[in-house]
Every structure is written in structure tokens, then in C-alpha cells.
Amino acid sequence: MFYSFIRWVVRVLVLLINGNTHYENKQVLPDGPYVLVGPHRTWWDPIFFALAGSPCKFSFMAKEELFKNPILRWIMNHANAFPVNRANPGPSTIKVPVRTLKEGKLAVMIFPSGSRYSQQLKGGAVLIAKLAKVPIVPAVYQGPVKFSHIFLRKRITVRFGDPITVPSGRVTDELTAQVGEQMQQSFDAIDKAIDPTFRYVPDQKKYLAEKEAGKVK
């Protein structure tokens, strides 16, 4: 109930402050639960992914520091988020989303590149999809990377790619690399389908700060 209400409020706000959002290729979305993956380009692209994927509802990972504040913890819990220690991820990082997907009520949103400036795909999305026996759906956000530009009514596009089925067999390094390459190829193809001239340019100050902190290579 809370999730649906918040999504409605956010949808109205986005319409008022931007009104230039486009959600493309929704017909490829599975009827059942799935793992939604995408390159993390801004702190707000998860919001647009959630709006684009409606009426499906999503669960997502959030850094555990956010759950220390009681107000934020209440909001996160009611928005289907679950805490993750990014420095030392435990078994719950895999078990919680797998259980959520198997229950069949929610999809799970994962940014396999971790930091929004990292290009290294992680194996977590592959393992979760494999254990839950659900497809992986790639998605891409193209739009402002500066929050103030959203108010300039610049075009925002979220486009979905064809679902990826994780092959049978053990989740080996080779399998993870294979599916990771499929994800990256899909991201590239979706970017090209939206705008062939698009080139993602991250905020250099934030990029250098994360690089110095060891979050990106």
C-alpha cells in the first residue's frame, strides 16, 4: 500500500517538474518476477526504473547506513528495500532477493556495476536470477545526470531490453562472464536504440572522489 502510494506521488511530481518522460519497449517485460539490471548513472535512475516498470513492484538493495535512521528505516522497509553491507556483503545479500523472487510478488532491481561510475559487472545478479529461476531484464536510463536539469524538462527515456535467461549448470566464473557480457551488449544496444549519438559522461568530481576512495578502478 505504501509503495503504491509513494509511486503515485512520485509519478505526479515527475509529471509536474519534467513532463517529458518516455518508457519504451515495455511489452518485453515478463508477466512474473524478474531481476531488473541497469547501468547506475544517477542516484535517481532507480526511481525512473520503478515508474517505467509499473504496475510491477520492486524490491531493491540499499546501503545499511540508511537503515540507522529510524525514519529512513521505516520508509525503506515499507518501500521493499533491504539493507546490504557494501564493504562486507553477507549471505543475506543473495538469500533475501532470492526469497523475494520465489514468493512471486515482487521483481528485484539490481545495479550490477555497483557504483554508478564503475563499468565492472558483478556476478550477484546472475547468481540471484539463477537461484530464483527468473530471467534478467536489462534496462537503460538516458536523461539528465544533473538533478537541476530535470527541471528544465529535458527528455528522460527508460527503455527495456529483451529478457536474458541464465543458462543451466553451475554458476562458474565463465558463466558469470558470459551473462555479464550479454548484459553489457544489451545496455549498449539499448543506448543505441534510444539515441545513437548518446555518450554517458559522469560527473568528473564525483568520479574522481569515488576513484580515490577505491570504489572504482
UniProtKB/TrEMBL annotation:
Entries under Pfam families matching the protein: Acyltransferase (PF01553)
One term of GO molecular function: acyltransferase activity
Keyword Ribonucleoprotein: no
Domain Phospholipid/glycerol acyltransferase: 34-144
This protein's UniProt keywords: Acyltransferase, Transferase
Alphabetical list of CDD domains matching this protein: LPLAT_AGPAT-like
InterPro entries on file: Plipid/glycerol_acylTrfase
PANTHER family per UniProt: 1-ACYL-SN-GLYCEROL-3-PHOSPHATE ACYLTRANSFERASE
Name of the protein: Lysophospholipid acyltransferase family protein
